[in-house]
Amino acid sequence: MLVYSIEKNVIEEETGSPIFEIEPDTGVIKTAVCCLDRERTPDYSIQVVAMDGGGLKGTGTASIRVKDINDMPPQFTKDEWFTEVDETDGSNLPEMPILTVTVHDEDETNKFQYKVIDNSGYGADKFTMVRNNDGTGSLKIVQPLDYEDQLQSNGFRFRIQVNDKGEDNDNDKYHVAYSWVVVKLRDINDNKPMFERPNIESVVYENAEVGTTLETFKAVDPDQGGKGKISFAIDRSSDRQRQFNIDQSGTVTIQRKLDRENIPRHQVKILAIDDGVPPKTATATLTVIVQDINDNAPKFLKDYRPVLPEHVPPRKVVEILATDDDDRSKSNGPPFQFRLDPGADDIIRASFKVEQDQKGANGDGMAIVSSLRSFDREQQKEYLIPIVIKDHGNPAMTGTSTLTVIIGDVNDNKMQPGSKDIFVYNYQGQAPDTQIGRVYVYDLDDWDLPDKKFYWEGAEHPRFKLNEDSGMITMRQGTRDGKYHLRFKVYDRKHTQNDVPANVTVTVKEIPHEAIINSGSIRIAGITDEDFIRVWNYRTQSLSRSKLDRFRDKLSDLLNTERENVDIFSVQLRRKHPPLTDIRFSAHGSPYYKPVRLNGIVLMHREEIERDVGINITMVGIDECLYENQMCEGSCTNSLDISALPYMVNANKTALVGVRVDVQAECTCGDRNFTKSESCRTTPCYNGGRCMESRFGLKCTCPTGYTGPRCQQTTRSFRGNGWAWYPPLAMCDNSHLSLEFITRKSDGLLIYNGPIVPPERDEIIISDFIALELERGFPRLLIDFGSGTLELKVKTKKTLDDGEWHRIDLFWDTENVRIVVDYCKSAEVAEMEDGSPPEFDDSSCQARGTIPPFNEYLNVNAPLQVGGLYREQFDASLYHWHYMPVGKGFDGCIRNLIHNSKLYDFAHPGLSRNSLTGCPQTEEVCSQSEQTSRCWEHGNCVGSFSEARCQCRPGWTGPACNVPTIPTTFKQQSYVKYALSFEPDRFSTTIQLRFRTREQHGELFRVSDQHNREYGILEIKEARLHFRYNLNSLRTEEKDLWLNSVTVDDGQWHVVRVNRYGSAAMLELDGGEGRRYNETFEFDGHQWLLVDKQEGVYAGGKAEYTGVRTFEVYADYQKSCLDDIR
């Protein structure tokens, strides 16, 4: 039988008694004294002996741990806690706690319960305490905090408590502890400035001088104790013409002449902007009422064109009323006085008289015009009578209006046989039944159609129809190319003439779509469409060559091509009085010449053409967007509208049936308007690329060497004495132009778009131009919207003629211009950890300026010249330019010329000299090394003048780009986490990958700092591609860049590329043209992105641990593929 005993016991200090005892026969250990204290001795060790009946012993050790009971009070580790917080922005309360407190309690387990003690001090009601998982307590805001409230601006002090019993058990004071909390408030910019008077009315005469003061606005900002600095501005949308200016004291002045007849009342929005970050803005309204002065001459009430029949005695011809734009309530209008202009021709003074009727038009006065003799239409068809009108203002205004009197025809001549030539251009051979012209007989009368009847001589031709009453011939649909001889006879019932023969020759020629989209165009003044094709002069009764024929000869001569290769296929009357006519022409060597070549050459020989053809050309290259704010207020894009319905011009002995082509002004930035869907016709592939349309959109398959997304040739080289012409820059009110270049020469013109000939006398001068050039190795930009030239230069740290590729970005809106060199990578950035605003010195990479007032847009329609200048020499003063481009030829290569996300095709310039496609200088470097010379198959060699490397196309890798990459499928809840072996650049981030998905959501790739406060995330949301990023670790200032017009859940492979430089970022999909590109290109706020090499880089979603071994992938990219992440 075993007997147990304690060999080494522990003794209680105070009494000397042993603490434990053991039952000898069972071995059960018990306490021998009351009340152990865990806080004093948490565990004990005693030695126990067991002895059997034979006297043999065995020893063992018992370890006894004292289990805790909650018998100790809690205690805050500080008597007073201090924190400083931003006031809340309105009622938006932060989720994050503003203070974490710690408690000391010797007990092992505690159920701490925290609370703010009600009424314990000012502000106690605005906060609450919560317990955290680790037992600490956090203070959170539950009511808005307002620094502008004077009581709150000094901060808050109140008490908090903790009890360690859990549930609200405050009765046992032994288990409760207290501490003070002091919260100090920081002022944030949460208040708008306040205007003293938010609505002011001002009355001013329309002849008020520029610089006249109207009113002064005053405003205060409640933030910063009312010491905030306020700046004033005018919301330009309320003052489009920029007629008013506000200075920093709030005083509004007139900066442009007012005109009551244009705008009688201005509602100008005045902005007061505070200096907070971000700033807040208040709005006030200035109503300017413009009073009339008599500054407009009276004119005819309408365009009177009375008909006076021939061979009638003197009689009253017409009564004429006048109108005046001035304010008649100020007596600045009627009654009007009329008289015949004393300087009128003798023949007019002998033929007509003008009399005043003072009581006419309800006392406004009117003129009565009468004839003084009879007239013969066959001598002269119309007379122009100048009439002087005077108003009743003080001083009075006088104006001259011209009255057109048409002599009406009487059938007083017999007809004689006639013949006619009709030329029909059949667009794509698809003309419907078309009227092509009237049967012509020689007759001095031209209004005697009702007296005539027309018949076929013999059988009707199967391809043509005749209207017997009007003599109109209709060509039936499907008529083939060729010459047709038609014979008719005409009857006149007044002169009872029968069977007068009339012959018509019809020539039909098909004209392809290619000819029309490659056509040049001119607008001519003072000549109708009929005058342009007419061969018969009724005054001299003789035949002469038509202006159309002479123009065709001139074109064939200037373009150095055969006459039959030139087609003038459209002559259309744009305006009847006074006449304006639009003419369209094409010409071909083997392919059709480009419009930029046709228009450019016509422009350079304009005076010679005008002289030899006898026309007045007012516009070369019809451009409805050329005159600012005429068709559109803002962006304006020309679209060519080609109709299947032909346009007929019918003159006596000739008729032309041409293609109806209208240039429509669309008030949008065409290159950035993605509302229309893409098709192979609207967005074709260049250079023989095959265009494929599928339900997933367009795709171009390109021949070798054409690397643009639509098979554009992206690069062109120049040798210092060349140039190349391309289509002009389209007009947009917000533009971005970028290009890259490489050179070793310090001077050279990169691009020029503007006038290439001096202006003609009396024409409306369009002096707009843009020029970008290198001058002594530094970039120089000149830009002129027609109201003065802005020059911008950037003093880069090193000159740009170093044989390396450089990139320049130009931005302009209606007032501001900016030039950025190499993404501003040379800028000096300083960012502090404490969240103070970063410092950004961009003087070595960026320059800004404002356009001299008041023009708002760059309107150019001459050729865009790349690499050099080909134009007539002229003096800058003719266009009122303040600066001229030096214009030295560029020696080097230019690539990737992009305007508003449209990539220019450099393959076939309209005209060029000493310029080649590609960049032989860098290609030579590429061919020298074994590796780079072989990479063209699945990559591109990117080289400077000194070194080259292979850049593999997406999906290929290896030194020579001949190893295909291996895609990975991401299943549900899968992700990849990367550890980087290099330190990522803080200023720039470039990410490129291929993906393929049918899912609408998922995160492709992310980089971030350790706590996910700074990040860049490439993701798919609602089937659209997004890149969102935040560079401020203290507060979220997220930017989200996305492609609105392209969905990517089509199950096809896509390539996406993100480039970030500081706070500027660019997002490109599948080559990044048009709707596949977006950017935010401002350097503001924080510029650095810190990436944690171990914890910050994920593909396919971000994994968060939810337990010890369980995790969840947030924004899971699933059931999809990724490949070739770079």
TrEMBL record:
<feature type="disulfide bond">
    <location>
        <begin position="952"/>
        <end position="961"/>
    </location>
</feature>
<keyword id="KW-0472">Membrane</keyword>
<keyword id="KW-0677">Repeat</keyword>
<dbReference type="InterPro" id="IPR002126">
    <property type="entry name" value="Cadherin-like_dom"/>
</dbReference>
<dbReference type="GO" id="GO:0048731">
    <property type="term" value="P:system development"/>
</dbReference>
<feature type="domain" description="Cadherin">
    <location>
        <begin position="196"/>
        <end position="300"/>
    </location>
</feature>
<feature type="domain" description="Laminin G">
    <location>
        <begin position="965"/>
        <end position="1126"/>
    </location>
</feature>
<dbReference type="InterPro" id="IPR000742">
    <property type="entry name" value="EGF"/>
</dbReference>
<keyword id="KW-0130">Cell adhesion</keyword>
<dbReference type="InterPro" id="IPR056370">
    <property type="entry name" value="Shg-like_Ig-like"/>
</dbReference>
<keyword id="KW-1133">Transmembrane helix</keyword>
<dbReference type="GO" id="GO:0001736">
    <property type="term" value="P:establishment of planar polarity"/>
</dbReference>
<keyword id="KW-0245">EGF-like domain</keyword>
<dbReference type="InterPro" id="IPR015919">
    <property type="entry name" value="Cadherin-like_sf"/>
</dbReference>
<dbReference type="Pfam" id="PF24811">
    <property type="entry name" value="Ig_Shg"/>
</dbReference>
<dbReference type="InterPro" id="IPR050971">
    <property type="entry name" value="Cadherin-domain_protein"/>
</dbReference>
<keyword id="KW-0325">Glycoprotein</keyword>
<keyword id="KW-0812">Transmembrane</keyword>
<dbReference type="InterPro" id="IPR001791">
    <property type="entry name" value="Laminin_G"/>
</dbReference>
<dbReference type="GO" id="GO:0007163">
    <property type="term" value="P:establishment or maintenance of cell polarity"/>
</dbReference>
<feature type="disulfide bond">
    <location>
        <begin position="702"/>
        <end position="711"/>
    </location>
</feature>
<protein>
    <submittedName>
        <fullName>Uncharacterized protein</fullName>
    </submittedName>
</protein>
<keyword id="KW-1015">Disulfide bond</keyword>
<dbReference type="InterPro" id="IPR013320">
    <property type="entry name" value="ConA-like_dom_sf"/>
</dbReference>
<feature type="domain" description="EGF-like">
    <location>
        <begin position="922"/>
        <end position="962"/>
    </location>
</feature>
<dbReference type="GO" id="GO:0030154">
    <property type="term" value="P:cell differentiation"/>
</dbReference>
<feature type="domain" description="Laminin G">
    <location>
        <begin position="713"/>
        <end position="919"/>
    </location>
</feature>
<feature type="domain" description="Cadherin">
    <location>
        <begin position="300"/>
        <end position="419"/>
    </location>
</feature>
<feature type="domain" description="Cadherin">
    <location>
        <begin position="2"/>
        <end position="76"/>
    </location>
</feature>
<dbReference type="InterPro" id="IPR020894">
    <property type="entry name" value="Cadherin_CS"/>
</dbReference>
<dbReference type="GO" id="GO:0048513">
    <property type="term" value="P:animal organ development"/>
</dbReference>
<feature type="domain" description="EGF-like">
    <location>
        <begin position="676"/>
        <end position="712"/>
    </location>
</feature>
<dbReference type="GO" id="GO:0048589">
    <property type="term" value="P:developmental growth"/>
</dbReference>
<dbReference type="GO" id="GO:0007156">
    <property type="term" value="P:homophilic cell adhesion via plasma membrane adhesion molecules"/>
</dbReference>
<dbReference type="GO" id="GO:0005911">
    <property type="term" value="C:cell-cell junction"/>
</dbReference>
<keyword id="KW-0106">Calcium</keyword>
<dbReference type="GO" id="GO:0005886">
    <property type="term" value="C:plasma membrane"/>
</dbReference>
<dbReference type="GO" id="GO:0005509">
    <property type="term" value="F:calcium ion binding"/>
</dbReference>
<feature type="domain" description="Cadherin">
    <location>
        <begin position="77"/>
        <end position="195"/>
    </location>
</feature>
<dbReference type="Pfam" id="PF02210">
    <property type="entry name" value="Laminin_G_2"/>
</dbReference>
<dbReference type="Pfam" id="PF00028">
    <property type="entry name" value="Cadherin"/>
</dbReference>
